[in-house]
Amino acid sequence: MTIVLGIESSCDETGIGIVRIESDGALTLLADEVASSVDQHARFGGVVPEVASRAHLEALVPSVTRAFAAASLELSDVDAIAVTCGPGLAGALLVGVSAAKAYSAALNVPLYGANHLPGHVAADTLEHGPLPSPCLALLVSGGHTQLLRVDDLATKITEIGSTIDDAAGEAYDKVARILGLPYPGGPPIDKAARRGNPDAIRFPRGLTGPRDARFDFSFSGLKTAVARWVEARDGKEIPVDDVAASFQEAVADVLTAKAVRAATELGIDTMVVSGGVAANSRLSTLAAQRCAEAGIALRVPRPRLCTDNGAMIAALGAHLVKAGVRPSSLDLSANPGLPVGTVSV
Ligand code: KG4
Ligand code: ZN
Q: Do 120 and 319 form a contact (C-beta atoms < 8 A)?
């Protein structure tokens, strides 16, 4: 049995996860501690990098202590450490990478610089077991919106499409601002949308024309359309619930339509949806419906594993260990622009 410690600090969540690789190769999640600085960013309407870095610095060691207490383990039980080394905010990443190097050197255990994006996909293996090969991952977060072909979580991930402008979560956050809802915008829009009519307003579905890039996304036109629609009310009351529901329908429609088309065209019969926006109720419902119609098995981790956390990095670390991937050297550095295909550094 091997104990893997995972450290995540790419954005505004300090995540510490502990995963055990069982003798049969199965993964068991032993601890998943998350300290969020989201409240400190709310009044700015987005993450303030310097504030996030400082919060990571304060939260990291206490979160490690809580995680080991929750798992009833000691630091000396750790066999390997995985840390998010990109993509993300440079200063925020550096806090996690520095801590991970220190633990690795002090405990004399291997260190794996891991990519945050495959980490989101790895989170699902904690809940639903090993992924079949190949599978298609729809990664939808505040910073990324991508379709990935996953042949091997530890070694072979290929991007087949991505957003050409805003990420899906970013669109949620911007539209929430337009509607006077709090940051981050996903949860309050999701809630308002449940009371609204998704057919009230027909918002545009970006990049769905016959000549558009088949597997790429665009959400900036949708955000602008919502802003124009609200402006055109010219002081009249805004039906927030209907706007939220109609916006959410447009996002869920495009994401699921493109993902199902990609899986069908590539002949892939399993889809994983992960990242913060995968916690969205309409996205998971529509994905379930369309995947069932297309004969695709759908996997969506529970919301807690969809948003940023350390368990997903511990899980990816466990897959790296199992695959026999070479550990990182102690001169590992943070790479804010790490490409998704580079699973470990
Ligand atoms: O994966 P994540 O926690 O962080 C990044 O790596 O970006 O994703 C955060 C994003 C935010 O934009 C937030 O508004 C969105 O996920 N989000 C949601 C929901 N919960 C979080 N979007 C739609 N519906 C939700 N229920
Ligand atoms: Zn993320």
A: no
pLDDT, tens digit (0-9, with 9 covering 90-100), for 88-135? 999 999 999 999 999 999 999 999 999 999 999 999 999 999 999 999
Residue 142 Cβ inside 6 Å of ligand 1? The answer reads yes
Task: Kindly report the length of the chain.
Answer: 345
Secondary structure of 81-150 in the HEC alphabet? EEEEEECCCHHHHHHHHHHHHHHHHHHCCCEEEEEHHHHHHHHHHHHHCCCCCCEEEEEECCCCEEEEEE
User: Tell me, what amino acid is at 141?
Assistant: S
Q: How confident is the model over 261-284, as pLDDT tens digits?
A: 999 999 999 999 999 999 999 999
Task: Round to whole Å and give the CA distance between 26 and 62.
Answer: 28
Q: Is the CB of 188 under 6 A from ligand 1?
A: no
Residue 167 corresponds to which tokens in the numbers above?
């990420």
Mutate to test the pocket of ligand 1, among 32, 37, 116, 172 (most ligand atoms within 8 A of CB): 172
Residue partners of 227: CB distance under 8 A and separation at least 6: 178
pLDDT digits (tens, 9 = 90+) for 302-341: 999 999 999 999 999 999 999 999 999 999 999 999 999 9
CA 54, CA 73: separation in Å to the nearest integer? 27
| Cα 275 to middle of ligand 2, angstroms | 6
> Which one-letter amino acid corresponds to residue 258?
K
pTM over the 0.90 mark: yes
Q: Is 180 helix (H, G, I), strand (E, B) or coil?
A: coil
What confidence score (pLDDT) does residue 247 get?
98
Three-state SS at 333: coil
Alpha carbons 70 and 92: distance in angstroms, whole number = 25
